[in-house]
Specification:
Blueprint: H1 7-10, H2 14-34, H3 36-48, H4 52-73, H5 80-95, H6 101-106, H7 112-126
Length: 154
């Protein structure tokens, strides 16, 4: 699982990336040393971990709704806030940059790809993929090198 195409990583400072990656490696080493129960607990924690996209969605929706409320109740100039937030979300969707992304990354928020990569590594450490090598079935038998082609329906 490659993180090379992760847009949020491309827009993250090298020192922050290094810290995030080192923390992930430390988690993996600790789980490997502690055993399967610790791996299961870490997988549960990963299921609850917020990623950068979720934080951006929450922040942008709160800012947009706040701007609408303030624009309707306090001063119409606040109606510019939802437009600014919309433009920022558009930028994130198209090029991967968001104004608060550096802050979120410095706070330690990881991308969904980074979280998925740790999850995959933990499952591999636990042995979830044992016996899934090409040519072997889950019951230990061998399978054909390539699956049978379906018969076309006339």
């Amino acid at each position: 699982m490659s993180l090379e195409n992760d847009r949020d990583r491309r827009h993250t400072a090298a020192t922050v990336l290094r810290r995030i990656d080192e923390e992930t490696h430390a988690n993996l080493h600790a789980c490997e040393a502690a055993g399967p129960d610790h791996i299961a607990a870490r997988l549960d924690a990963l299921d609850r971990e917020w990623d950068t996209d979720r934080a951006i969605e929450l922040e942008s929706s709160l800012m947009g709704l706040g701007g609408l409320v303030l624009g309707a109740l306090v001063r119409p100039a606040f109606l510019a806030a939802p437009a600014v937030v919309g433009a920022a979300v558009f930028l994130h969707a198209t090029v991967g940059w968001y104004p608060l992304l550096p802050l979120f990354r410095r706070m330690g928020l990881r991308t969904s790809g980074e979280i998925a990569r740790e999850r995959y590594a933990l499952k591999a450490l636990r042995g979830d993929f044992h016996g899934m090598a090409a040519g072997h079935s889950a019951d230990g038998g061998t399978e054909a090198a390539s699956p049978a082609r379906p018969t076309p329906v006339a």
